[in-house]
Amino acid sequence: MSLPDEVARLKREALERIGKTDSLASLKELQVLYLGRKGLLTAVLKGLKDLPVDERRHVGGQANQCRRQLEEEFKQAAGRFASPASHTLIDPTLPGTGQRLGAAHIVSQTIDEICRIFYGMGFEIARGPDVETDYYNFEALNFPPDHPARDMQDTFFVEGGRLLRTHTTPVQSRELEKRKPPMKIITPGKCFRNEAISTRAHVSFHQVDGFLVDEDVSMADMKGALVAFCKAFFGEGLKLKFRPSYFPFTEPSAEVDIQCFLCRGKGCRVCQHTGWLEILGCGMIDPAVLEKAGHDPEKYTGYAFGVGVERPAMLKYRIDDIRLFFNNDVRFLRQFI
Ligand code: DAH
Questions:
Q1: Which of 167, 191, 286, 310 to mutate to test the pocket of ligand 1 (most atoms within 8 A of CB)?
Q2: SS3 170
Q3: 6: three-class secondary structure by DSSP
Q4: Which tens digit of pLDDT belongs to each residue from 109-138?
Q5: pLDDT: is 115 or 10 the higher one?
């Protein structure tokens, strides 16, 4: 076979094999086989030197053109095996990136749940400021300036004589002052106390207070509402205990304990082996509080209560460290979506 024929045959053969390669590695091998230093085309071209000068120039030109064409073909073919990162390639088998839906924080969910239960009993919702005056936080609630009851609440004071409210009861002072009975209100919100942070206490927490003022309101009305709330929030079939207590703004005052729903009263670590869990404070609004707000205590009576939010949520969802609510660790929060 003449040299030009041999070159043309190699070219045809190489093109055909390029078309059939199915991987970048075999394409590279093929390139070395035809165009490498010891490759087939290179070997054939070595025979050029034996040709007469005229013919050598002609055939040499043809052979070089063939080499360039094959180089181009190899380059194009390599493009077929470009990495999948290339924009034109879509791999429909890859898992999707997905959209994660956000959700209300478990503290907000618990506040909503508490509010929903009272809303269902006809309570309205009112809110007040986190930064309060001494008057609404203490004085209007019957805490005299040097009364030892102020020690119950370690207060954070801010500039200008104001303070971070230590409970949500000041919203009761404000609403009592603004409205005329009958009123039936719940007041959810944030509270602050200068406490040592531990598994059970935090400097910032939430409460939902509630109160009702009307003619002829009795302690039985209060008991009815609070028993209904406890059943709705914690479930049926648990005993409740109204235990005498003290708050400056209620007289008489009580605290409600619920039978521990983990051990059903037998005694366990959660209820500290008492069989009972303390969940809220309540009482009949002290006549002095009604009077300060401009209502006649001879005509009107009322009851009030204050429920913590984190504590019942910890009990209900078996959370053993209050700090988890405030760390914003999504692994914790995602459990309550
Ligand atoms: N403010 C009280 C506290 O933070 C809780 C409380 C008790 C609120 C009795 C009330 C109430 O409205 O009547 O400990």
A1: 167
A2: helix
A3: helix
A4: 999 999 999 999 999 999 999 999 999 999
A5: 115
Dihedral of alpha carbons 191, 196, 202, 203, sign: positive
Phi (first) and psi of residue 244, to 5 degrees = -55, 140
Closest residue by CA, ligand 1 atom 12:
305
pTM comes to 0.72
Q: Please identify, by atom number, the ligand 1 atom nearest to the C-alpha of residue 172.
A: 12
Mean pLDDT, rounded, of the chain: 90
CA dist 5 and 8 (Å) reads: 5
What radius of gyration do the chain's Cα atoms show?
41
- Pocket test of ligand 1: the residue of 166, 247, 278, 279 to mutate, having most ligand atoms within 8 Å of its CB, is 247
Closest ligand 1 atom to 250 CA: 13
**Does 302 sit in the ligand 1 pocket, CB within 6 Å?**
no
Q: Are 143 and 169 in contact (CB under 8 A)?
A: no
Q: What superfamily would CATH give domain 106-336?
A: Bira Bifunctional Protein; Domain 2 (3.30.930.10)
